[in-house]
Amino acid sequence: MNDTPLPIRVLGCSGGIVAGQHTTSFLVDDDILIDAGTGVASLTLDDMQRIDHVFLSHAHLDHILCLPLLLDAAGALRHAPVQVHALPETLAALHRHVFNNQIWPDFSALPRGRPYMNLVPLKTGEVLDIGNKRVEALPARHSVPAVGYAVSRSMPAQPAPCWVFSGDTGPNRAFWERVNALDVGMLVIETAFSDDEAELAAASGHMSPAVLAESLTHIAADKTFPIYISHTKPAEVSKIMGQLKAANRNLSRPLDVRWLATGQLLHL
After folding, report:
1. What was the pLDDT predicted at 207?
2. Where does the Metallo-beta-lactamase domain start and stop, copy by copy (predicted)?
3. Residue 54 belongs to some domain of the structure
4. What gap in Å lies between CA 23 and CA 16, rounded to an integer?
5. Closest CA relative to residue 45, chosen from 72, 68, 82
6. Helix ranges restricted to H, 13-152
7. What are the phi and psi torsion angles at 175 (to 5°)?
8. Residue 67: DSSP 8-state
9. Alpha carbon distance 8, 263 (integer Å)
């Protein structure tokens, strides 16, 4: 049984690009990538060739942008295709709009006889055991089909604490129902827009501070874990932070809310 801490490297967690900030991507151990935003560009070639599995939350550009470049950089150095896991709708969008031999080569078929990637459909609620790690696809509600993820060590004899990633999502009771059933060690959840842009947040399937604060009230009373805020738009970080701090103070049970930063290393 492996009970060593599970390292999660924050390659990117911003809702946009600016110097020092990159879009969503997390490296779990050294072989699983959760989303493939611009943060992947901080990896070395050795890092890239050790990635065996990529789990995509959805098909938006800020979450998949570096996947084609990762495959191009490291594909020839590997002995097996990278397994790219996502909802069928996400995989269809990738194949139609990116890996179409016009925008980028179709690395699910190329090079012939030894493709660089294998597209693996998954569904919400599916659980995969990969080596000594377990990955579960969680429900999300976004402007396109989407999932979040729960990642933990595989512990056959007992539940293991999970790193939970909401992905891009608006309010979603099904997500909290599943979170309350898990042993959550930490939660990464998005707050893309300030309350000044609450209408835009709602229309695009994102959170604003007031909406997130209300959503956090669905956490069961016996659950206590740090909540890391991600996906903030670079121009609104200070405003979002201030609004969320104020909203959290007004909750009947203020929570342990923290801000996530590119380059941070989390240990579960």
Report:
1. 96
2. 22-206
3. yes
4. 6
5. 72
6. 45-49, 61-64, 67-74, 88-97
7. -60, -45
8. H
9. 10
97 pLDDT tier (thresholds 50, 70, 90) = very high
pLDDT digits 0-9 by tens, 18-57 = 999 999 999 999 999 999 999 999 999 999 999 999 999 9
Residue 2 inside a domain? The answer is no
Instruction: Give the largest CA-CA distance in the chain.
Output: 59
Q: What predicted TM-score, i.e. pTM, was given to this entire model?
A: 0.96
Which is nearest to 22 in space by CA: 267, 265, 266, 260?
260
Q: From the centroid of its chain, how far is CA 261?
A: 14
Q: Which amino acid is at 102?
A: Q
Within a domain: 241: yes
In-domain check, residue 110: yes
Q: Which residues pair with 128 in a beta bridge?
A: 135
pLDDT at 2: 57
Q: Residue 206 burial (CB < 10 Å; 0-12/13-18/19+)?
A: buried
Query: Structural domain tally of the chain?
Result: 1
Which residues contact residue 99 at a Cβ distance below 8 angstroms, ignoring those fewer than 6 apart? Answer: 68, 105, 106, 107, 108
What is the mean predicted confidence (pLDDT) over 1-15? 87
CATH number at residue 140: 3.60.15.10
For 121, list phi and psi in degrees, rounded to 5: -70, 145
Residue 87 has pLDDT above 80, yes or no: yes
Residues 6+ apart with CB under 8 A from 113: none
Domain that holds residue 100: 7-267
